[in-house]
Amino acid sequence: MKRLLAVAVFALACIATLPITSTSAMAQRGRQGEARILTGRVFDRQDAPLQKAIVYLKNTKTLVIKTYITEPDGSYRFPALATNVDYEVYAEYQGGRSDTKTLSGFDSRKDPNITLRVHGGK
Question: Model-level pTM?
Fold first, then answer.
């Protein structure tokens, strides 16, 4: 009888903690499942959009670099970025380069937009 009572108490204790564990696990999955999209445009010194500029995006945690070749209007897009990671972004065009800008993991914007201006080059 005591053993049956002990098993019942143990089972109830497990069930009582189940919603807390499930809620916590769902919250962690939701945070990991979130993503943001970085968009922007690349311009030259005279504010003309640069088609075919190369935009580099570096994940500062993994050091993985992604690239994007800009559209005719100078636009670029990097989807599915982690929300808890810092990224560095810069552009190059015909030997010139923009300043490096940082997208912080603390930046809460879902769709941040960063404009890059290329200096130097041809």
Answer: 0.72
Provide the token pair at 93: 């065009």
Is the CATH code 2.60.40.1120 the one for domain 35-119? yes
Please state, in angstroms and as integers, the Cα–Cα distance from residue 111 to each residue in 13, 35, 44, 77, following that order: 43, 9, 24, 10
Kindly list the distances between the CA atom of residue 116 and the CA atoms of 34, 45, 80, 113, in Å, as whole numbers in the listed order.
Answer: 26, 10, 20, 10
Burial of 17 (0-12, 13-18, 19+ CB in 10 A): exposed
Distance, in Å, from the CA atom of 78 to the CA atom of 62, rounded to the nearest integer, reads 16
Alpha carbons 13 and 56: distance in angstroms, whole number: 52
Contact 80, 59 (CB under 8 A): no
Domain spans of the chain, in order of start: 1-33, 35-119
Q: Which residues lie below 8 Å from residue 56, measured CB to CB, with a gap of 6+?
A: 65, 66, 67, 89, 90, 91, 92
Over residues 52-95, the pLDDT tens digits come to 999 999 999 999 999 999 999 999 999 999 999 999 999 999 99
The first and second tokens of residue 38, run together, are 């970085």
